[in-house]
Amino acid sequence: MMKKIITSLLLLISGFATAQPTELQPAMGADSLETNSPVVTTPDQLWDQASTAYINNDFHGAIKAYEQLLAQELSSAKLYYNLGNAYFKDDQLGQAILCYRRALRLAPGNDDIRYNLSVAEARTKDTIEQIPEFFLSEWLRAIRHTMSCTAWSLLSLGMLIIALASVLFFLLAQRLTWRKAGFYGALVAGVLFVVTTIFAAGERREILDRTQAVVLSNSAAVKSSPDKSSADLFVLHEGTLVRITDQLDDWYEISIADGKKGWLEARKIEII
Asked: How far lies 75's CA from each of 83, 86, 98, 104, in Å?
C-alpha cells in the first residue's frame, strides 16, 4: 500500500514539473521557424539605443529608436526635443520643427526647446510678416507660456487652498487685525486662483489644439480651391507653420501669419 502511494506522488510531481512553461525556450510553431520574430525592446533600451546612435552621428538610427518609443504611446517634451534634434541633424527641417513645437506644447517654459526651434525656423525659406497683435494679449501669452498646464493647475489648486484657509482664518480670528489679514489674504488668493485657472485652461486648450500644422513637403502650392487644377495662389516650403481653418476630403483650407488663405493637400502638412 505504501509503495502505491509513493509511486502516485512521484507521478504527480513529475507531471507538475513537465507542465511548467520555460521562459528561456518559448514554444515555436512551424511559421516561427521560417521567419525571425521581432525582438521586444524595453523603453529604457530604446532610449539608450537612440542616445548611443545620436552620439555616434547615426541620426537615422536615433530617429528610428525614438519613433519606436512614440509608437509605444510614450511621449514627453524631452522625447520630442531629442527627436527634433535628430531630425535637424538629419536635415529633415520640417520634421524637426514639428517635433520642437510638440515639445514646446508640453514644456512651454523650456528655453532650450524654444532656442532650437528658433534656429530651425531661421533656416526655412518662407519669410512671413506676422499681423501685429495687441500687446496685452502677447504679454499675457508670454506669461502663460512660462509654465506647463500641469504646473498652472497645481498652482491654481494651491491658491484655492490658501483662499479657503484665509476665509477660515477671517471667520475664526478674534482680533480685528487678524480678521483683516484673513480677508485680504482670501481676496488676493481668490484673484490669483482665477488667473492661474485661466492660464491652466489656456495651456490645456493649446495642447489639444488641432488647427496648427507644419508643412513637410519641400514645396507646396497653395490653391484657390480644393482642386489640383485650380490656380496657384502662393507657394509654401518645408517647416512653415500654418493654421487649418476648414477641411474638405483630402484638402485643408489654411491661413498663414500674414493673413493669406488657400487650399493645401492634407498629405503635405502634419498637425502638431
From this structure: 11, 16, 14, 13
Q: What is the DSSP letter of 57?
A: T
Concatenating the DSSP letter of every residue in 106-131 gives: H-TT-HHHHHHHHHHHTT-S---PPP
Separation CA 197–CA 189 (nearest Å): 12
258 in Cβ contact with 272 (< 8 Å): no
Amino acid at 97: I
Angle (CA) 133 139 140, round 5°:
105
Beta bridge partners of 219: 237
Contacts 24+ apart (CB under 8 A), 168-171: none
User: pLDDT per residue over 174-225, tens digit each?
Assistant: 889 999 999 999 999 999 999 999 999 999 998 888 999 999 999 999 999 9
Q: pTM here?
A: 0.78
Residue 169 C-alpha cell reads as 482664518
Half-sphere exposure for 118 (CA within 13 Å, toward CB): 6
State whether residue 213 is helix, strand or coil: strand
Query: Do you know the residue count of the chain?
Result: 272
Phi then psi dihedrals of residue 269, to 5 deg? -135, 165
